[in-house]
Amino acid sequence: MVETIFSCVVAVICMFPVFIFGIVQYHSKKPVVFWAGKEPPTAEQLTDLKAYNHRHGIMWMVYSAAFVLCFFIGLVMDGPPWIWRRDCRRYRMSRRSAGFNLVS
């Protein structure tokens, strides 16, 4: 249970700055940067600066929300990963076959 709570907190903490980044880009008055190391287009190059910034902000907010949502769906559907590791200990790789054999 502690591992589940810890992993949920870590997932939310990791995606929280991305969500805030999306909010900042959504409300930005200047053109926002999407690619690292590239100069953003100037306001004169864009036909609709507000729509450009809104699309980029929404993209980051949806990305972070989808990441957290998929994480929680994975917890509900399959259980936490440490259960998978415990179940995988029952299996070992056979030298004679390409598949896994159940160890008795």
Report on this model:
- With 104 residues, the chain is mainly α.
- It is 61% helix and 6% strand.
- It has a two-stranded antiparallel ribbon with strand order 1-2.
- The chain is elongated, with a radius of gyration of 22 Å.
Number of helices: 3
User: Which strands sit side by side, in order, in the main sheet?
Assistant: 1-2
What is the β-strand count?
A: 2
Shape: elongated
Largest sheet: 2 strands, antiparallel
Structural class: mainly alpha
Give the end-to-end Cα distance, rounded to a whole number of Å.
Answer: 29 Å
Q: Estimate the helix proportion, in percent.
A: 55-70%
Radius of gyration: 22 Å
Mean pLDDT: 78
- The string of secondary-structure elements, in order, is HHHEE
> In percent, how much strand structure appears in the residues?
5-15%
Point out poorly predicted stretches.
Answer: none
